[in-house]
Design brief:
α3 packs across α15 and α10 crosses α15. By secondary structure, the chain is α/β, with parallel strands linked by helices. About 30% of the residues lie in helices and about 20% in strands. The chain is built from 15 helices and 20 strands.
């Protein structure tokens, strides 16, 4: 079945699930014999074999969508079927299908222009400037002052006082995604990134060839986001890249004279105003995508209606210029963790509460699969979600390094974190670090919008993050196995008569 994403449908999912209150859980297994059977099935060698398939060149980076991703989905489905899981989707085939729209740029209606005093500058799309991603393209018009924000991050951004304005910053001084999020949180209306003029300068049409082509041919975009308080859909601020020659013209206008390659205005200096008008052409239909979902029914007549979600994304970023980005840690490690937990459950037998294991697609595109499920969740009749444990990137860095969010420093701190912190010691993680800065960065944030407590297990980024070097040979499979054991222990402990998180 194809699921729709009407905002009213999403809002309707938020009310039925009460938020459990916090109380410390008892530090003892619910079923010691079953737990030991389950833990004994979790093997670093078996995880390694799964991981080397999931992160193989043949799956070509599991982009959303791609043939490699479809193969991965069917591999996961086959495992669930072999282990005796029930389908966790309305269609009863383990594949939760959802639709994302396509969008294409109307180039004639998409313009970017700047004005400083008597100087007016007009920039040609695809030659002088480009959007960074498809999420930048929406039907909108923004005409506002531009302020210089240096790196576009932290103290520079704060000094620029960007609320209600565009920020301008230099290329190469921070990730675009991080600057976009920081700008939005600071109240900025958009981000203009100025190309560096030092060294080799790649033309816009070469550097942004992929996004230019995809927006001209028709790019897929994610399911509708959570509505804002006023009922309007939330859209991220646009991020535009300006070529070196155009950037020089803009800065020269601000300086009132030609400037050299090292010129930077003072933080907060106004560069005039910037007007963006962007328009969508026809939508070209939609694209069907898949999450893989298995249901492990509980044994208690009443508690089985309470469902603990285990989530991980199984997609990665695919190939770029014929180079495969295998995504072994991101998120082959989390994908393999859930496979190991599924094996463990097959030996444990039914818990009192039900478990829903979901591998979501489209996380790398903007949490598409988890947003789709959270917007239109499916559970057996009468069942409801009560918690989510999300796993993403748990196979690299030090063997004893594992991070968690929300911590006790975060406003969403809950009993799931406290359980994870206590049980982690038994699996060689003596103290869980903080991943609070990643609270909004993975799929748990979408499940949190169901009104349930969440916990995110993560072992931090590394030099191969979103790089071709994220290969299975570099994964610490013993560490992944210990994370799977930790999750299994957590499931066992969530089986008391009253779940108070």
């Amino acid at each position: 079945m194809i699921h729709a994403f009407a905002l009213l449908a999403f809002a309707a999912t938020l009310s039925p699930t009460p938020t459990p209150t916090f109380a410390p859980s008892q530090p003892r297994p619910s079923n010691p014999a079953a737990l030991e059977r389950a833990l004994a099935t979790i093997s670093a060698d078996e995880i390694r074999s799964d991981l080397f398939f999931i992160a193989s060149d043949e799956l070509a980076g599991r982009d959303t969508p791609s043939p490699g991703q479809r193969i991965a989905a069917r591999f996961l489905r086959a495992r669930l079927q072999r282990l005796g899981f029930e389908p966790g989707d309305e269609g009863k085939d383990f594949l939760y299908e959802y639709t994302v729209p396509r969008k294409r740029i109307d180039e004639a209606g998409t313009t970017l222009a700047a004005k400083h005093g008597e100087t007016q500058l007009s920039f040609a799309y695809g030659k002088d400037w480009s959007f960074y991603t498809s999420q930048d393209l929406e039907d909108r018009a923004i005409d506002a002052p531009i302020v210089w924000a240096g790196s576009g991050l932290d103290a520079d951004l704060e000094a620029a006082k960007p609320s209600g304005k565009w920020i301008a910053c230099r290329d190469g001084k921070g990730s675009t995604g991080k600057r976009r999020r920081a700008a939005q949180e600071a109240g900025a209306l958009g981000v203009l990134v100025l190309q560096e003029r030092k060294g080799t300068i790649a033309p816009v049409d070469e550097r942004f060839a992929d996004i230019l082509r995809s927006l001209r041919e028709g790019s897929i975009s994610g399911p509708a986001r959570e509505p804002a308080k006023d009922g309007a859909p939330r859209a991220s601020v646009p991020c535009a890249f300006l070529a070196a020659s155009s950037a020089t013209a803009l800065l020269s206008a601000q300086a009132g004279k030609p400037v050299d390659a090292d010129y930077e205005p003072a933080l907060g200096a106004e560069l005039g105003s910037l007007a963006l008008s962007s328009k969508l052409a026809d939508k070209n239909g939609g694209l069907e995508l898949e999450n893989v979902v298995g249901f492990w029914p509980g044994s208690d007549p009443e508690l089985a209606k309470e469902v603990v979600i285990l989530s991980a994304h199984y997609d990665h970023v695919g190939t770029r210029r014929d180079v495969v980005y295998n995504g072994a840690d991101d998120n082959g490690s989390g994908t393999s963790t859930l496979l190991a937990v599924a094996e463990a459950l097959s030996q444990y037998g039914p818990l009192r509460r039900s478990v829903l294991i979901i591998w979501v697609s489209g996380e790398e595109k903007g949490l598409w699969g988890s947003r789709a499920f959270a917007s239109a969740p499916w559970f057996p009749s009468g069942a409801r979600a009560v918690a989510d444990i999300n796993i993403d990137m748990v196979g690299r860095n030090a063997p004893d390094k594992l991070l968690v969010t929300p911590t006790d420093k975060h406003e969403k701190f809950n009993g799931l974190t406290r359980i994870a912190e206590r049980l982690a010691v038994e699996e060689g993680f003596p103290k869980l670090g903080s991943a609070d800065s990643f609270y909004s960065r993975s799929d748990h944030i979408e499940f949190a919008r169901l009104g349930i407590p969440i916990v995110f297990l993560f072992s931090d980024v590394h030099d191969d993050y979103h790089q071709p070097g994220d290969d299975p040979e570099k994964i610490d499979c013993d560490k992944v196995a210990r994370v799977a054991r930790l999750v299994t222990r957590m499931l066992d402990e969530l089986q008391g008569d009253k779940l108070e998180l």
